[in-house]
Write a structure and sequence with these properties.
globular, Arc Repressor Mutant, subunit A, mainly alpha, three-stranded antiparallel sheet, 2 domains
């Protein structure tokens, strides 16, 4: 790995290592593999399903469309995740009495039990990851993360990247001939 970038390098990137999103991705990859092994190997669910379980444990029952918004996922991915959790009997669904098109979801008793078993392990991993970092640095880091989230949403709403993903019609496979000359 190259030398770790400083603020100047992040503000005027010259290499991959100087890109903020790349650095965030590296930091996430360094620890997320442990989380993936924990949920998939230990409990038979995906990391996305774990996020859904955690959110449902936190908020209780919610309309599936509102749940997708809360997770910042599209409705299709949310629906697939919920269907998988329903098949695993970790989530319960019910039709809305007033609007039959709306579905409400909540954790089943098994889902609550899984959350109670898994959350302490994630909490411990969180504690271990932060071990040795001064509280003032953590506070500053959290302020920066919050700003990055807000700024990312703002840039997205402003259309900072006009390209759209097109996975239904081949996605990146369509683009390769253009660059393979």
């Amino acid at each position: 790995m190259q030398a770790f970038p400083d603020a100047g390098a992040l503000r005027a990137p010259q290499s991959l290592d100087d890109l903020l999103l790349y650095r965030l991705s590296c930091a996430t990859r360094a620890s997320s593999s442990m989380a993936t092994r924990l949920v998939e190997g230990g409990f038979g669910i995906t990391y996305r399903e774990w996020g859904m379980i955690g959110m449902l444990a936190q908020i209780g029952e919610i309309r599936s469309s509102a749940f997708a918004e809360r997770l910042h996922l599209d409705r299709v991915r949310t629906s697939r995740g919920l269907s998988s959790l329903f098949q695993k009997k970790l989530v319960e669904r019910r039709q809305d009495a007033e609007d039959g098109r709306e579905v409400h979801v909540r954790l089943s008793p098994s889902g609550h039990q899984l959350f109670r078993e898994l959350f302490p392990r994630f909490a411990n991993l969180n504690i271990e990851l932060l071990d040795g970092i001064d509280a003032a640095y953590i506070d500053t880091f959290l302020q920066c993360l919050r700003w990055l989230e807000l700024r990312g949403r703002e840039l997205s709403m402003l259309g900072a990247v006009p390209e759209k993903a097109d996975r239904r019609s081949g996605g990146t496979r369509q683009r390769w001939p253009k660059y393979s000359r």
